[in-house]
Design a protein that fits this description.
The structure holds two protein chains of two kinds. By secondary structure, chain A is mainly alpha-helical. Chain A is built from 13 helices and two strands. Chain A has a two-stranded antiparallel ribbon. The two termini of chain A are about 20 Å apart. The relative contact order of chain A is 0.14. By secondary structure, chain B is mainly alpha-helical. Chain B is globular and about 70 Å long. Classes of the chains: A mainly alpha, B mainly alpha. At the A-B interface, helix 1, helix 3, helix 4, helix 5 and helix 7 of A face helix 1, helix 4, helix 5, helix 6 and helix 7 of B.
């Protein structure tokens, strides 16, 4: 970083003038509400009445035994498999399969594979609700036309299937992103590393484990942060496809915050859930970014 | 490229096409349905319509009130993008090039906003907006979105200004430019790619934002497109052509911008988290 020095005749605080407009709006509409959320989580409040009761950590204590919260958290963790682990594995497998040869027309493929990332999750949800519709959805219709009637399911309405069904939408959204990220990373690995490995008689798997993976560390870090956070933040998709149901089988923490705060008026409880959710997201981002910068220092 | 080299790429293209097909099939299938009759949708979800009919769009636009949603979304998005990019340019410039007393505290403060989800702010924000009677107004949709966008924009633009050529700035200073002039005359033209990336990202995030608009707005005519579509789906979920037309209205503008500025989208989204 370059040294930022004062120009002659310039006030010490000149830089603040530039920061002020952005800072003010950020402090009022983002930073202050974050603090308020944390404060609210120590109170019992219905949202209307003027009496908030300070109850200390009670909201947090009740979280530990709250079956809805535990279910929601477990579902978010399950979504990490669908949003993060499966897409990363698909991305890695494909990147190594396609190798590092430049391919004409890659821009077209990249644009298409990236498409789910730019669409509103509401549109994605509407699309997949149609695909999964038990009566006239293309998935069941396709199965029926293949004579596989036994395999047709009420994909989003079944207690056991709803979660993996919604999760697989997440996989659909994320795998193209991971593929592109890793393919771009592979282009940067110097050819001589593979040549040397070839001379040493290392097979494809060994090359993958000892050259490809270590060189993709930065990309793996980005993919992990982005997709895990997406899994923790799921809200729109659940709102549109299942509203957390059937029962609470697809309930996620984001939806629990919304439901408790704006439909059940359990404001303190909702704030505690929101705080826990934020802390988890924060810990994921910070720890992975830290691992990544350590890896970069080693390089 | 030699013939043999090209032949060797064929399996690669087949694999890529397969994965591309899985992504495109559901989207294209739904979009096609917007132009079909009910029976055509049931008969062949992925077949082309016999006649490309457009009345479903009209029905969504007027009966479905997508005309209101569209106006609201456009207004909110345009204001958020312009203000956020302007403010982020200023904060980014300050953090990247100017001496800022207290930067060790201020910069991480902005970073925090980049990491938190909307759930972390939405509860007090709603009660705060309610108290000052701003729910059901554009302000409730615009101001918080600017706050969040500025936090990412600050990180993004400051990393651009940190790496901007110092010689140009020094030369301009010698010519008598002040800080403000250096920013707008010398650096702003250079920052076009960084700014464009920020524009498309903020555009996309604002256009697609759901929770904020869901909570802040009760009046139907104040809804944005994603919220409008979500409630629409609750009522008409069996009417696939209508749902498809609604989806296409929501996705259309983003798709258009994506086709034009694809490079900036992808670069921003791949690079955003690295830089952050």
């Amino acid at each position: 970083m370059q040294v930022q020095h004062r120009w002659p005749g310039e006030s010490r605080f000149h830089g603040w003038l530039y920061i002020l407009p952005g800072l003010v709006i950020y402090l009022i509409f983002v930073f202050y509400p974050i603090l308020e959320t944390i404060r609210t989580s120590f109170y019992q409040w219905d949202g209307f009445s003027s009496n908030r009761t300070f109850i200390g950590l009670e909201n947090y204590v009740s979280l530990i035994n709250d079956s809805q919260f535990l279910q929601a958290l477990l579902n978010n963790l399950t979504f990490i498999i669908f949003y993060s682990i499966i897409p990363i594995l698909i991305g890695l497998a494909l990147a190594s399969l396609l190798g590092r040869r430049p391919m004409p027309g890659m821009t077209f493929f990249r644009a298409g594979l990236f498409l789910p990332q730019i669409l509103s999750m509401v549109v994605v949800g509407v699309t997949w609700r149609w695909i999964f519709n038990p009566v006239f959805g293309p998935l069941n219709m396709g199965l029926r036309s293949l004579g596989l009637d036994a395999l047709t399911q009420s994909w989003l309405g079944d207690f056991n299937l709803a979660l993996p069904s919604v999760g697989s939408i997440g996989t659909w959204v994320q795998y193209g992103f991971c593929m592109i990220l890793f393919l771009a990373g592979m282009q940067r690995i110097p050819e001589d590393q593979y040549e040397a490995a070839e001379l040493d008689g290392a097979n494809g798997l060994k090359q993958f484990l000892y050259i490809t993976i270590p060189n993709l560390r930065a990309e793996l870090g980005v993919a992990l942060v982005t997709t895990m956070i997406a899994a923790m933040r799921v809200f729109d998709l659940v709102f549109v496809t299942t509203r957390g149901g059937p029962g609470d089988s697809t309930l996620v923490t984001g939806f629990l915050v919304y439901r408790s705060a704006f439909q059940q008026n359990r404001i303190g409880f909702a704030a505690a859930v929101a705080t826990v959710m934020t802390v988890i997201i924060f810990v994921i981002s910070v720890s992975i970014l830290r691992l990544q910068s350590r890896a970069e220092e080693e390089k | 490229m030699t013939r043999r080299a090209r032949m060797r790429l064929i399996p690669n293209y087949i694999i890529l096409s397969l994965f591309l097909f899985i992504i495109l099939l559901p989207v294209v299938g739904l979009m096609l349905s917007a132009f079909k009759t009910d029976t055509e949708v049931i008969k062949g979800p992925f077949a082309l319509p016999a006649h490309w009919k457009l009345d479903t769009f009209e029905k969504a636009w007027t009966t479905g009130r997508f005309n209101y949603f569209f106006q609201n979304s456009v207004l909110v998005t345009v204001v958020v993008v312009i203000v956020s990019v302007f403010f982020s340019t200023l904060t980014g410039y300050a953090f990247g090039m100017l001496p800022v007393p207290g930067r060790k505290v201020l910069f991480p403060l902005f970073l925090l906003g980049y990491m938190v989800p909307f759930e972390a702010v939405i509860i007090p924000l709603y009660h705060f907006m309610d108290k000052i009677s701003l729910t059901d107004t554009y302000w409730a949709l615009i101001l918080p979105q600017i706050g969040l966008s500025v936090s990412f924009g600050t990180l993004w633009m400051s990393s651009f200004y940190r790496n901007a050529p110092q010689e140009l700035v020094d030369a301009a200073a010698i010519d008598g430019c002040n800080r403000w002039q250096v920013l707008w005359r010398i650096l702003w033209p250079l920052s076009r790619p960084a700014v464009l990336t920020l524009v498309v990202l903020v555009f996309m995030w604002t256009w697609n934002e759901f929770l904020l608009a869901l909570v802040m707005v009760q009046k139907e005519t104040m809804r944005t497109l994603p919220v409008g579509l979500a409630f629409f789906q609750g009522r008409y979920s069996a009417d696939i052509p209508l749902m498809a037309a609604g989806s296409l209205i929501v996705a259309g503008p983003i798709l258009l911008v994506y086709i034009l500025f694809q490079r900036y989208f992808i670069r921003g989204m791949l690079g955003g988290s690295i830089k952050g």
